[in-house]
Amino acid sequence: MFNDVSAAVTEGFLLKTVTTMGVGGPCDYYIVPSTIEEIKSVSDICSEKEIPLLVIGNGSNILVDDSGFRGVVLHVGKGMRKFQIENNVLQAEAGVPVPRIAFHMAKEGRAGFEFMAGIPGTVGGAVVMNAGCLNKETSSILQSVTYLDSDGKVQTKSKEELELRFRSSYFLGRHHIILSAAFDASTLGDTEEVMRNTKAAADIRKGKFPINVATVGSTFKSPPEGPHPGRLIEETGLKGYRIGGAEISSVHANWIINKGEATADDVKKLMEIMQNTVAKQFGIELEPEVLFI
């Protein structure tokens, strides 16, 4: 079926090996593209054969079902990782890890990207979710996004057309594939100061959240104006609560940790308990930030 695709195709690939939570069953086909042409070829085949297609970046912020994914998984986070600066604009492919961008820009003395050091994801994922850290969002420096639409055509939309809101964008829920994004890199600063602020952003996240653990990151959306899920969940006394191999972190209550043998079902049950308990005690409905696959 994928004979004309130059990238390697693996059948029955276990998705828990490429997700940060470390859960999830197998997909039918797993492909790591390194070019736009490869992405387009796979997309065309899936469209023609009516095969479901899932695109992942860093494998964070997603919870893959224990039964896996019946279709094709394109792992752009392993192959689409080139970026360059031209005329004060950073052009970055969808698979580039955003912390890598933050530190590269700091070395260049270009300000505005410091917050990205605290986002454990890729350019594509950061755009889809309008990811942010330290009260700053991807939208603050984004200029435009180039993507493959659901009809297989390459399109470019400006920032103003992308419906960027808190942890949401035009792309959320649509069958488009982000190929690259352009960011404003025109703000120059003192190189030492920019690097210091970039390291501080990374350190703040390390100090505030669990590190070196298997997790999706923030479980529920935490808008800047509140209410903050971590505080609410902590006040219910659920910190450290565990179902199977999934545990509410004792460091930050809005994070669920895979203690070794967690299943997606364990995580979902734990999320349900967190939502129901907070709703019962505070009358507040927690909205998941994690995407269910």
UniProtKB/TrEMBL annotation:
Spell out the PANTHER family in the cross-references.
UDP-N-ACETYLENOLPYRUVOYLGLUCOSAMINE REDUCTASE (PTHR21071)
General function of this protein: Cell wall formation.
Q: Which reaction does it catalyse?
A: UDP-N-acetyl-alpha-D-muramate + NADP(+) = UDP-N-acetyl-3-O-(1-carboxyvinyl)-alpha-D-glucosamine + NADPH + H(+)
Pathway given for this chain reads:
Cell wall biogenesis; peptidoglycan biosynthesis
What UniProt keywords are attached to this protein's entry?
Cell cycle, Cell division, Cell shape, Cell wall biogenesis/degradation, Cytoplasm, FAD, Flavoprotein, NADP, Oxidoreductase, Peptidoglycan synthesis
Q: Which residues form the active site?
A: 167, 218 (proton donor), 289
User: What's an example GO cellular component term for this entry?
Assistant: cytosol
Q: Which family does it belong to?
A: Belongs to the MurB family.
Q: Which gene encodes it?
A: murB
Name of the protein in its database record = UDP-N-acetylenolpyruvoylglucosamine reductase
What Pfam families does its record include?
FAD_binding_4, MurB_C
List the EC numbers from the record: 1.3.1.98
Could you tell me which InterPro entries the record lists for this protein?
FAD-bd_PCMH (IPR016166), FAD-bd_PCMH-like_sf (IPR036318), FAD-bd_PCMH_sub1 (IPR016167), FAD-bd_PCMH_sub2 (IPR016169), MurB (IPR003170), MurB_C (IPR011601), MurB_C_sf (IPR036635), Oxid_FAD_bind_N (IPR006094)
